[in-house]
Amino acid sequence: MGTIVDVDSAEELTVGVDVGGTSIRASVVDVRGEVIDTAQAPTPHSVDALEQGIARTVRELTARHPIAAVGLAVAGFVDYDRTSVRFAPHLPWMDTPVARLLGDRLALQVVLEHDANAAAWAEWRFGAAGGGRNVVVVAIGTGIGAALLIDGRLYRGSFGVAPELGHLQVVPDGRACPCGKRGCWERYCSGTALVDTALELLAAEPSGSTVLARDVAVDPGGLTGRRIAAAAREGDPVALATFADFARWLGVGLATVSDVFDPDLVVICGGVGSSASLFLDEAREHYARLVTGAGHRPLARIRHTQLGEAAGMIGAADLARQALPGRSWPR
Q1: Can you tell me the distance from the alpha carbon of 17 to that of 284, in angstroms, rounded to the nearest whole number?
Q2: How many other CB atoms are there within 10 angstroms of residue 229's CB atom?
Q3: Gyration radius (Cα) of the chain, Å
Q4: What letter would DSSP give residue 33?
Q5: Contact (Cβ atoms closer than 8 angstroms) between residue 135 and residue 163
Q6: Whole-angstrom Cα distance, residue 302 to residue 263?
Q7: How far apart are CA 166 and CA 147, in angstroms?
Q8: What is the pLDDT of residues 104-131, one digit of tens each?
């Protein structure tokens, strides 16, 4: 239970909502990007139940705080005006005017944002991307989400869906991807990829790991990226080899991204980012070696998130504040 905060103006507080496939997480965020209260609920899987669940979670917070607006961070395609969800692979919305529907339920202004864009905005305003001019944010979780800030402005492309960096092809005819292509970057550099790589290494050399081999023998389908990270910290050789492979592919992808965008700063966030100590230094080395013109150009700084899993909520809340009447709407 949060504490009611005494504020001079309701405009000082907004709610950011991270709408995930398994849970709805909402936070009250102040003008400094500080989270002062939170609420959470399971994610329903029908349109009406989902909207009711989001509204109920937000109302839990509006009952305790004077809220001016609500921002939603959505893992899916959001239209350029940030009012509708075109498609979300783990949510039931399809060409749905979510901002209007939820705004009517809550009697508050609601704005949408792609979850990676929301996290990037938060990191630029309050976290690891501060001071960056051209910034790439790579959110590594089940797959890869990405965002691009050019001179402090979020780049969305012509239709609101850019940049889908996770689906750059890095291996022709490589691992199959749910997007329908093969060899996408996220199939080699994500939480899912960690499991696939570990299983491939175990199949090639079953005796090469004591910890992971035992886990897989007990529960063949229970291996997770979190478990592989724990095994790597324990010195398990297959787990360490898995993260070495992951670091290589992260470096390969960042070199390609840098060839296209030439950023001065890259921020790594997302669930796998919590294991950054296992791969980030090695990934930096691969990137520095593989980027075109290596040794003859400045390299992007590669940082780890400062805001962690709250970044999407903080960014969505701040973008909702920026969209209030009389404010400058960040394009």
Answers
A1: 32
A2: 21
A3: 20
A4: S
A5: no
A6: 10
A7: 11
A8: 999 999 999 999 999 999 999 999 999 9
N-terminal to C-terminal alpha carbon distance within the chain: 35
| CA 82 to centroid of chain Cα atoms | 17
In which residue ranges of the chain is pLDDT below 50? Answer: 1-10
Give me the phi and psi of 88, to 5 degrees please.
Answer: -140, 120
Which pLDDT score, from 0 to 100, does residue 273 have?
A: 82
DSSP structure string for 222-280? ---HHHHHHHHHTT-HHHHHHHHHHHHHHHHHHHHHHHHH--SEEEEESGGGGGGGGTH
Single-letter code of the amino acid located at 104: D
| Residue 128 neighbours by CB distance under 10 Å | 23
Burial string for 172-208 (b: 16+ CB within 10 Å, else e) reads eeebebeeeeebbbbbbbbbbbbbebbbebbeeeeee
Q: In what order do the strands lie in the sheet with 14-19?
A: 35-42, 23-29, 14-19, 69-74, 109-114
Which string of b and e fits 245-283 if b means at least 16 CB within 10 Å?
bbbbbbbbbbbbbbeebebebbbbbbbbbbbbebbbebb
Which residues of 55-155 form beta strands (DSSP E)? 69-74, 77-78, 85-87, 94-96, 109-114, 134-140, 144-150, 153-154
Measured between alpha carbons, how far is 276 from 322 in angstroms, rounded to an integer?
32
Element (H, E) at 14: strand 14-19
What pLDDT score does 238 carry? 94
Q: Which SS3 state, helix, strand or coil, does residue 190 take?
A: coil
Among candidate residues 258, 243, 273, the one with its CA nearest the CA of residue 165: 258
pTM above 0.85, yes or no: yes
Coil, strand, or helix at residue 183?
coil
Q: In 3-state terms, what secondary structure has residue 98?
A: helix
